[in-house]
Amino acid sequence: MTGFPLRRAILAGVLASAAVVPMIAPMPAYAQFGGIVYDPTNYAQNVLTAARSLQQINNQIQQIQQAATSLTNEARNLTSLPFSSLQQLQQQVQRTQQLLSEAQRIAYDVQDIQQAFNGRYKGAALTGDHAQMVANANARWEDSVGAFQDALQVQAGVVGNIEGTRTTMDSLVSTSQSATGALQAAQAGNQLLALQSQQLADLTAAVAAQGRAQALQSARQAAEEAEGRERFRRFMGN
Hints:
By secondary structure, this protein is an all-alpha fold. The protein folds into 2 domains: 33-77; 86-237, no CATH class. Helices cover 79% and strands 3% of the residues. It has 6 helices and 2 strands, in the order αββααααα. The chain has helices at residues 3-20, 40-77, 86-101, 110-120, 130-177, 182-237; strands spanning 31-33, 36-38. A two-stranded antiparallel sheet has the order 1-2. β1 and β2 (36-38) form a beta hairpin. The protein is rod-shaped, with a radius of gyration of 53 Å. Mean pLDDT is 82; it is low at 18-30. Residues 47-106 form a coiled coil.
């Protein structure tokens, strides 16, 4: 009699366990370590979010670097050239102008030239008495001699400017080659153009001085021919 109640109790326990097992839900895919729940799905999502954030930060850093580089280039382009040849070029031009202003007897002036020609090279100046003809001939000779002397002085001044021009050119070329920005390069180019203008001014002055001397010499020869014809006319008339 004692075995029957024991078997019945075991059977009741098995049935109770079987009834409870179907009601247990499947466990999710996560683990617990020391009280911290590890969820692989959430972990992967967090890693992806962090990677995207890091990429955005890298993009922002690159944009900042590009902006800094652009500002640096703009600063270089706005940097002024540390060398200026304007003063030297102006001094050379002023020396040439001073030589031209020291023209003897007949200056580079329209009214002065007109007055000199009326008084010594044409008209009544060639038909006066003997003393007047001699005086005008001497004046014309002095005009020619002075003009050739002026031409030589101007040419000497232009030659003297060559050394200063060479020094200035060397400095400008060296500075332009080491230019750090567009503004410096442009300023160096402008100064080189100014140097060429100064050289053209010297060349113009030399040509003008030489042309003046030759023109006065030709005018002197023409006046002497006219004066000779007047003397011959008077001789034949007498």
